[in-house]
Predict the 3D structure of the following.
Amino acid sequence: MTTVSLLDAAQRLARAETTSRELTEACLARIEEHDSALRAFITVESDGARRGADEADARRREGQVRGPLDGLPLAVKDNLAVAGRVTTMGSAIYRSHLPAENAGVVDRLDTHGAVRLGATNLHEFALGVTTENPHFGICRNPWDTERTPGGSSGGSAVAVSAGMALGALGSDTSGSIRIPAAACGIVGLKPTYGRVSSYGCYPEAWSLDHVGVLTQTAADAALLLDAISGHDPRVPSSLPLPPTMTAQEMAAEAPLRIGIEEDFFFDRIDPAVEDVVRGTLGAMVEAGAQLVPLTLPSLAEATFALTVIDTAETTAFHDDQFRRRGEEYGEDVRQLVECGTLPSAVDYLHAQQIRSRLKGEFHRAFSEVDVIASPTLPIRTPRVGEATVQVTGESRDRDGELMRLVGPSNLVGIPSASVPCGMVDEMPVGIQFLGPALGEAAVLRAAAVVERLVELPDIRF
């Protein structure tokens, strides 16, 4: 039961071929069997999940189904507030924190009748890309437990990849959904900035934070996005728009125009990873897609701009708490927060100027193409605890490499999705698609094409 997609599970429920209780028990059994090794969850809500599943089954018997998510067991990253349940942010400081109200997306899941399995592990305060959490345990990749699942939404990705949940919510400030999606061989979608409420999501960098989804398939991502999107008046950044209709819109049949920007998105890629991604693009061309060369000159400064904005905003948010309780932060996160004092106000303003220029360049590019493609990660999946990686004899910083290609879409606030497109070293490789603002259907349509062309081997753990 736990390997079915959200869409398949919803259809089985509709045909009375299974029940929410059966789906939920299958996920809970999977958690019980594997989570001591994988550490995907910080909190498992077994009793609440069973209660929610029984309520969903009762609604279905009475003909009061709330929608396609009703009765489906999902996981929620532990930086999204759940009223009355400990929400830790992956930090020892919040080990006993009980929020008074739900995050906006948690309310939407409840409205749609989803079953909440528990809170997933994350890099402390979502400030990292490995989910090597010193307080709640190192999260491990189910494809190879000696390798990182990525982060900061590593627990959500592992839960979906390992069949512990049929889908999960995560957050993404500098790639934190797409990095673990690529490393764990699933789909990860970061929507347009403001398309999904960030209310009740513990901030990292307020102008970069996005809430999104991790799922088995592109169709599942559309289904989950349509349920959690829409305007939230409590958040100034929330776009005044109704919920998305991505599941319907991504069914368009027009051939895809795929932009290829070589100087940044294909620069210094591990040769084996590049071969897999270019092979996938070649197969998409054979299936009817068109590749269009693009130039985006300001991408050369994107890493600088993202780093300055992210670290400065993070440190500004943490400033008071860090002064009082900095010794309770993990070492790597403490160093990151300290680094946020280094950029000057001039640096921050220069970064915002770069951001504005890059937004304009992407906007113009999307008048010529539907999506832009790149590898999600330029390197092979690193091992747990590996601070540097080797690529063709060159030593590179692990964290910088993991964020390098996924950061620009956060900087300019456009949708981006990672979808698995092959294997290297018996580990999944992801291809990333970026789309125009509000273009979630385009990136998921491209992801769906890849799914039809590429099939990963079964995961073994």
In short: The chain has one domain: 1-461. The CA atoms of residues 4 and 166 lie 7 Å apart. Residues 302-325 form the longest helix (24 residues).
